[in-house]
Amino acid sequence: MAIKTSFCTRVMRIIKLLAWLYATGKRLGRLDGATLEQRHQTLRDLSVACLKILNVHLDTRYHAENQPKTGLLIAANHISWLDIFVLSALYPASFIAMQEIKKWPIIGKIVGNAGTVFIDRSSRKDIDVINAAISQELERNGNVCFFPEARTTLGNGVLPLKAALFQAALNSNQAVQPIVLRYYDNQTRTQAVSFAGINLLRSLWQIVSIERIDVKVDVCAQILPSSLAEQDRFLMKDEVERCLSEIVLLDSPKPNKILPE
C-alpha cells in the first residue's frame, strides 16, 4: 500500500526544491570553459542532491562487468522527469529532448544549461544535424542520453522505439548503453511518478506526496555496432527495444496499459 507524506512534508520538499533550483542555475552558469570531467561531476552532484530531497533511492544492477562509462549513447525508457536525475546520478550526459521541454518554467532553462539539445522530431533535417552533433560528442568521449520512445509512459511497458538517433552510434562506432528504469512505492511498482498525460505541477505534487521512491536501474550489456549483422540503425533499435521490454515487463502490474486513457 502506498505511503503518503503529510501536507507539511510536501510543502517543505517543494521549498527545498526551489532552493535547489536556484543553486543549480547558479552552478550550471559557471560551467563555461569547464572540462568534460568537471561538467560530469557537477551534473552528478546536482542530480544526487535533487534525488535526496525527494527521498529517491537507486538500486542499480549491472548486467555486464567492466563496461566503459564514457563515450556512450545511452538509451532508456521514459516515465518521469525524474529519469533525467536518476540517469545523471549514474551516467552524467548531454540529453536529447523534445523541444517542448525548453518551454518549461525554470526546468527548461536548467536542462538547457546542462547541455541538453532540443530537437523537433518532425524535421528530418533537424535529426540529421543532431546525429552529427551526437557523433561529435561521443567521439570526444562524452555521454549522450536520449529516450527513444519519444514520449513518457506509465512505465508498465515500452512503446516501439524510434530508430533515427541510433545512427549516431553507428557513425561514430561507439557503444549504445541500454538502461531500464522501474519505479516503486513501498515495494510496489507505481505509476504515480509518471509524467504521461499530466502537467508539471500535478506531477511534482504527486511525487512529493510519496514517502519514499525506489528505482530499480538495470544497466544492460552494451551493444556495439560491430555486434550487429549489418550496420543498420533499425537492427540497433530492435536490440535495445528487446532489452528494455524484457526487464520492464518482468513485474509489470498492467503490461497492456502503457499510456493513460
What does this structure look like?
The chain is α/β, with parallel strands linked by helices. Helix content is 40%, strand content 16%. Strands 1, 2, 3, 4, 5, 6, 7 and 8 form an eight-stranded mixed sheet that branches. Strand 3, helix 4 and strand 4 form a beta-alpha-beta unit. The radius of gyration is 18 Å and the shape is globular.
What does the secondary structure layout of this molecule look like, with pairings?
Layout: H1 7-29, H2 36-53, E1 56-62, E2 73-76, H3 82-90, E3 94-98, H4 107-113, E4 117-119, H5 124-139, E5 144-146, H6 167-172, E6 176-185, E7 188-189, H7 200-208, E8 213-219, H8 233-248
Parallel strand pairs: 1-8, 2-5, 2-6, 3-4, 3-5
Antiparallel strand pairs: 6-7, 6-8
- Number of discrete helical segments: 8
The profile of the biggest β sheet is: 8 strands, mixed
Rg computed from alpha carbons, rounded to a whole number of angstroms: 18 Å
Overall pLDDT metric:
90
Strand content: 15-25%
